[in-house]
What does this fold into?
Amino acid sequence: MNLEEKKAYFLLDWKTDEQISFESVFGNSNLVDLEIGGGRGEFLVQRSASLTDTNFLEIEVKGKRIKTILRKLDPVHNTNVRLIRRFVDESIRKILPAASIRRIYIFHPDPWPKRKHHKKRLFQNRILDIFKEILVPGGEILVSTDHPGYADWIVDLFQKRKDFQGLYPDGYSTIPFTDHIPTYFECKKRDEQEKIFYMIFRKVEL
Ligand SMILES: C[S@@+](CC[C@H](N)C(=O)[O-])C[C@H]1O[C@@H](n2cnc3c(N)ncnc32)[C@H](O)[C@@H]1O
It folds into this structure.
């Protein structure tokens, strides 16, 4: 498949706020995992090839990154993947059905380190409200960051809520997840001797 053919196969042209039917998009009723901001797609491409009974939706805002991911996707091993180019904010609630996602993966989200830019961070209570709605009962959010201040910010946000439970006693761990797949950013930061913080938060039924 050339790039245009891959676009036609993997990329959902989802410009509207119409709700996605995962059954019609993937052609099956398997569970769906969502990755946000997958960058160059290392995690998406490898995990989807090994978890063939799970569907994977990637939402990434940059067209250049979408192209890089498309180049890596293989029509034989990644038939369970679809991509959407879109900026993730509360509006994703319109396109993603309630209780439809098993796991959300967000690796090395932009840290917006300056205090005046903290409002631009993806992790805010209003997006956690949306994550709670789209996750299935017991669904999980897996996060990693190399930015200690952002790790604290994320842990603090979740700890103040009753509807999510952190799975690490200290909020985060510096030991990678089981079956971990290092992303481009993680490898870069490790080469720069940065510590990586891993977090898992599970949706709790109240
Ligand atoms: C620092 S990079 C990390 C990429 C990859 N996850 C990794 O670990 O190598 C952040 C990525 O998130 C994407 N991104 C940032 N904000 C986003 C948003 N609100 N919605 C979708 N993608 C976003 C960027 O385009 C970029 O590819």
Summary: Residues 36-39, 59-62, 65, 87-88, 107-108, 110, 122, 183-186 surround S-adenosylmethionine (CB under 6 Å). The radius of gyration is 16 Å. The chain has a mean pLDDT of 97. The chain is about 30% helix and 20% strand.
